[in-house]
Design goal:
Biogenesis of lysosome-related organelles complex 1 subunit 2; mainly alpha; BLOC1_su2
Length: about 120
């Protein structure tokens, strides 16, 4: 019976070692998983901070675009005025051209009249 008691003690010790080793292994894996989860949480926080910064930049850009749009609308009135002036200049050039032709015609008539004056 002493052999059976010794075998049981040896078996009990082996089982105890096995459970201790399995327990250590599971504890190590759980610690590794917890470390990975902490790292993932920190990475998520960092990314969230980055996106907060992007949101600030996007808001600033939106305000800038709105200001540019308002300025552009202010320039539209000036562009319309320039277009009107351009049209008026084109019409004025046409009148000047007609007057130039008329003056040339008058010059020719005056020259012709001077040539035809009896001396």
């Amino acid at each position: 019976m002493a052999e059976k008691g010794a075998e049981r003690d040896e078996l009990a010790e082996s089982l105890e070692d096995l459970f201790a080793n399995v327990s250590s292994m599971i504890k190590g894996e759980l610690e590794g998983t917890n470390n990975q989860l902490r790292l993932l949480e920190k990475m998520n926080q960092r990314v969230a901070e980055e996106y907060d910064g992007f949101s600030d930049v996007a808001s600033g850009l939106r305000v800038f675009v709105e200001q540019l749009s308002e300025k552009n609308q202010g320039f539209d009135e000036y562009v319309k005025q320039v277009d009107v002036i351009d049209q008026q200049v084109t019409e004025f050039e046409a009148v000047v051209s007609m007057l130039d032709k008329y003056v040339c015609l008058l010059e020719k008539k005056v020259q012709s009249a001077y040539r035809n004056i009896p001396t």
